[in-house]
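Propose amino acids for all 278 sites.
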C-alpha cells in the first residue's frame, strides 16, 4: 500500500490566494483557474453560497474576467451544488504527473491524501468571509480517496462529462481515479503538515517513522525526512503534485496505513451540519 500526498487547489502561484478554513471548520479547497476547465466559479455552490461569492469576499481583487473558469479536481465534495444529475466522484491526472504515479506503481487500494494551502476565516458582518489576521497560511490535508478503479480509455473517461479530464480525453497518460471510498475533512491539528512557528509552509512536521530508511517520499530530490526530537521534518519540494510515500517492509507499510487511517478518522465530519454558509 502506498500513500500519495497530492497537492491541489489554489496557492500563491495558482490563483494567488489560500483556500479557506471556513468558520464551521470545513476545509474548502478552491479549484485553480483554468480556461479549459469547463466549470465557472459562479456555477458551484457550498451551502447556499457560490464559489464566486466566497472568493470575492476573501479577495476582492480576484479577476473573474480572466480567471472565471476553474479546474474542479479532485471532485470529491459531496455537498456542492451545480453538478449534473448522476454525478460521481473522481480525480483526474495526466502527463508527467500521471506517468510518475505509474512508474511508482500507484493503483487500486492506495490512498491519496489531498492537501493544499489553507488559511483560517471568520465572518465580519456585512463583509462576509475574511481571513483571520495573524493566522498563517499552512499546508493542510483536506480530503482523501482510496483508489477503487482507474479509467484510462477515452470513452470511459468521457462518461464523466462534467469532469475537466473529460475535455480532450485522449491527452497523453490521461486517466480518472475513482474511489472505493473518499471524503473531505474538517480542520483538526493532526491534518496540518506545516511545522508550527516558522515562516516556510513547505517545512513539514511528520510522524517519526518518516525518517526511517525504509520510507521513501518521491519528487523530493536530495531532500528526505530527518528526525528532530519526536517528529520527522521534511523541507518539501517547492513545486510538484504527487508525492508518493512507500514503505520497504511489511511493518513499515502497516505503520503507514495506520497513520493514513488515523487522519481519515480524525478529519471526517462527525455530523453533516446543514446550516447554510450565508
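Proposal:
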Amino acid at each position: 500500500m502506498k500513500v500519495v500526498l497530492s497537492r491541489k487547489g489554489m496557492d500563491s502561484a495558482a490563483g494567488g490566494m489560500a483556500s479557506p478554513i471556513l468558520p464551521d471548520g470545513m476545509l474548502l479547497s478552491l479549484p485553480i483557474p483554468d480556461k479549459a476547465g469547463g466549470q465557472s466559479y459562479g456555477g458551484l455552490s457550498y451551502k447556499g453560497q457560490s464559489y464566486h461569492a466566497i472568493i470575492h469576499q476573501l479577495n476582492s481583487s480576484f479577476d473573474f474576467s480572466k480567471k472565471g473558469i476553474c479546474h474542479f479536481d479532485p471532485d470529491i465534495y459531496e455537498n456542492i451544488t451545480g453538478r449534473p444529475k448522476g454525478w460521481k466522484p473522481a480525480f483526474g491526472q495526466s502527463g508527467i504527473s500521471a506517468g510518475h504515479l505509474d512508474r511508482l506503481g500507484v493503483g487500486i487500494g492506495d490512498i491519496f491524501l489531498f492537501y493544499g494551502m489553507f488559511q483560517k476565516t471568520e465572518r465580519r458582518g456585512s463583509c462576509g468571509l475574511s481571513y483571520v489576521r495573524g493566522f498563517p497560511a499552512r499546508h493542510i490535508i483536506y480530503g482523501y480517496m482510496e483508489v477503487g478503479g482507474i479509467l484510462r480509455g477515452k470513452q470511459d473517461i468521457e462518461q464523466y462529462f462534467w469532469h475537466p479530464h473529460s475535455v480532450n480525453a485522449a491527452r497523453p497518460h490521461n486517466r480518472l481515479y475513482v474511489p472505493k471510498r473518499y471524503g473531505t475533512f474538517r480542520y483538526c491539528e493532526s491534518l496540518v503538515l506545516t511545522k508550527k512557528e516558522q515562516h516556510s509552509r513547505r517545512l513539514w512536521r511528520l510522524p517519526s517513522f518518516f525518517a526511517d530508511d525504509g520510507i521513501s517520499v518521491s519528487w523530493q530530490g536530495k531532500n528526505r525526512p530527518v528526525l528532530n526530537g519526536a517528529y520527522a521534518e521534511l523541507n518539501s519540494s517547492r513545486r510538484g503534485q504527487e508525492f508518493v510515500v512507500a514503505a520497504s517492509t511489511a511493518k513499515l507499510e502497516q505503520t503507514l496505513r495506520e497513520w493514513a487511517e488515523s487522519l481519515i478518522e480524525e478529519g471526517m465530519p462527525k455530523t453533516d451540519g446543514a446550516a447554510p454558509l450565508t
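The radius of gyration is 18 Å. Helices lie at 51-58, 64-67, 95-103, 154-158, 250-267.
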